[in-house]
Amino acid sequence: MFRQLQNIDSAFRYIRSFCIMFLLASTTICCFALYYSYCQVQAAQKRIYILAGGKALEAFSAGRRENIPVEARDHVRMFHHHFFTLAPDDKVIQSNITRALYLADGSAKRAYDNLRESGYFSNLITANVSQEITVDSVQVNTDKIPFYFRCYARQSLIRTTSVLTRSLVTEGYLRSVSRSDNNPHGFLIERWTTLENKDLLTKSR
User: Fold this and answer.
1) CA nearest 185: which of 103, 84, 105?
2) pLDDT grade, residue 35 (50/70/90)?
3) Which of 84, 86, 58, 20 is nearest to 12 (CA)?
4) Cβ(147)–Cβ(176) under 8 Å?
5) What pLDDT digit, counting tens, does each position of 148-178 carry?
6) How confident is the model at residue 202 (pLDDT cuts 50, 70, 90)?
7) Dist. CA 80–CA 192, nearest whole Å
8) How far, in Å, CA of 154 to CA of 203, rounded?
9) Of the candidates 4, 61, 86, 171, which lies 20 to 30 Å from 121 by C-alpha distance?
């Protein structure tokens, strides 16, 4: 009788130990499975597929901090493109300037007002002159907020008989603002000034 009770007690301890080990193993496997699933979901969220030309191209998302220099340079390029790409058409001029003014503060508005008061836009329309800009480079210092930038570009004034090329160097600061349809990069140009704007060469057409 006593030996039978010992056997029952041993069997109970064995079963208890086995259950505890099974529970620990199950818990470990579940935790690993949850962690692995979380990692896979995070990796999937960073993977984007873009359909271009009938082909699926893989792209990867990145954080705002990693893209700041790229977005800042493109913001400056967009502003200069809209502000200096002009046609001998009042509606085109107004449309481009409006887009540019969404990307900058009052310093750009003052520059526009000065050009308008001096008759610059009227002269473009009267003389049928088109103006284009090519941004050569944009330097942005992201070490200090607001970000300082300097833009190097070339303007082309296309007349009926000639093309005048001018050098353009501007500078300013970039402040972070909320993104919108009119300001997709979420920057605002402040204290924008022109450092250089001089004739380089004239070519006959």
Assistant:
1) 103
2) confident
3) 20
4) no
5) 999 999 999 999 899 999 999 999 999 999 9
6) very high
7) 11
8) 14
9) 171
